[in-house]
Automatic annotation (TrEMBL):
Transmembrane residue ranges: 34-58, 70-93, 99-119, 126-147, 153-175, 187-206, 212-237, 249-266, 272-292, 304-323, 335-352
Highest taxon, organism lineage: Bacteria
UniProt xrefs under SUPFAM superfamilies: MFS general substrate transporter
Keywords (A to Z) from UniProt: Membrane, Transmembrane, Transmembrane helix
Protein name, as recorded: YbfB/YjiJ family MFS transporter
Amino acid sequence: MATKALLLALGPALALGLGRFAYALVLPLMQGAWGLSYAEAGLLGSANTLGYLLGAFLSHRLLGRTGYRWGFFLALLLQGAVLALTGSGGFPWVFALRLFQGFLGALVFVGGAALLMTLGGSGRALGVYYGGVGVGLLLAPWILLGVGSPEAAWARLGVFSLLLGLPVLHTWPLLREPPPPARGEGGLGPILPLLLAYGLYGAGYIGYMTFVAAAVGEALLLFTLLGVGALLTGPLWGPWVERVGGRRGLFHVLLVLFLGSLPPLAQSLPALSAFLFGLSFLGVITALTQAFRALLPPSAWPRAMGLSTAAFALGQAMGPTAAGFFAEVAGTGEGALWAASVLLLLALLPVLPRQRP
């Protein structure tokens, strides 16, 4: 199971680590070579988030029709081609491709998680899968090392994404389709508080990720530690959520994330803040998935994964705006970090541990 999770983890690594987060590394080249304004840069970021949101809402129905295996692998390989083509046109072309890549990224993320859950993956295996995003965060700077133009940068990201996606094909014979929904089961009422917490987490997490480098500097160190911490998601949070349960584990990981995001820590000990944040931000989805398995029948897991990803994407779309507003009010990047911390604090409330009678 560990080997399967390790190979499937290349899905999030490529679709999110390279497909989404590497955009921040290519952006300075795009601004220098194309004269891209900050407003246009923000629109391209929003396009990717919007595509991810649409993909999350449609993933359950679309993957159910095509088959989760076909949908996962097709989206994974196709998004590499989309990345390679992103630097070959004007702004409308880039906007459309960033939108499409976000859509494909959601299919990869949701599809791979549903396939792994169907295999009976443990909390540790799920942690390894989600922690794959950290692999992409670490690989992206090295893939782009020495690149001199946005066209070459996108081409490199696309080629490496395609090449690194090929080993994932070896998991095809081992994977099984999730069971179809059964009538009369799979109501999502028990997980609504979890979806609320996950949406608030999405808003707070992206607020920190967007503004921490601007607020405290040391971008290279911070993103390296974020990636290293993310790689430890499986070994740390996987066994813990198996021990305490998904809901309690979700509270614990959100608490660590909140503490790591606090501006006093980020400004006085930025390396520790980034490491704690990286260690925990993917542990949230590990715990959430474990909670789904405990609260819902297997036939409802894929739909729950799609809706949770949509809740996350919606929060992620709103988070930078809220954080940016508070930064403007405060006149400093510290205001954005405080906004992110408050959102993460609010995410704790729906999953507060229940007192036993």
